[in-house]
Amino acid sequence: MRKLIQSYIDSCALVRTRIHELSDIRERKRKLGCLTSAEEHDLDKRIKLLYAEHGQMSDVIDHLTSYLRAVEQRVDT
């Protein structure tokens, strides 16, 4: 169970890294003036999806962590 939680934590970190990368790309292209509205829309959509995915993974981490704590408390009593 701990390995599963850790893998979700690692995945969350990768998603955050990708969000930052895509945001940087969008800002650099915007500053250079070479960002079309279609590209901007695509980047915004991808970033939004990654935020949603990150939120879902965080919810799973919270759920698994609280479940693990509950199981450990039952074992201790």
Question: What labels would you give this structure?
Answer:
77 residues; mainly alpha; 2 helices; 0% strand; rod-shaped
Summarize the structure.
The chain has 2 helices and no strands. By secondary structure, it is an all-alpha fold.
- Average predicted confidence as pLDDT: 95
**How much of the polypeptide forms β-strand, as a percent range?**
under 5%
Helical stretch count?
A: 2
Sequence of secondary-structure elements:
HH
| Coarse shape | rod-shaped
Taking Cα atoms only, what radius of gyration do you get, to the nearest Å?
Answer: 18 Å
Number of strands: 0
Helix content: over 70%
Intertermini distance? 20 Å
Structural class: mainly alpha
Outline the biggest β-sheet.
none
Query: Low-confidence segments, ≥5 residues, pLDDT <50?
Result: none
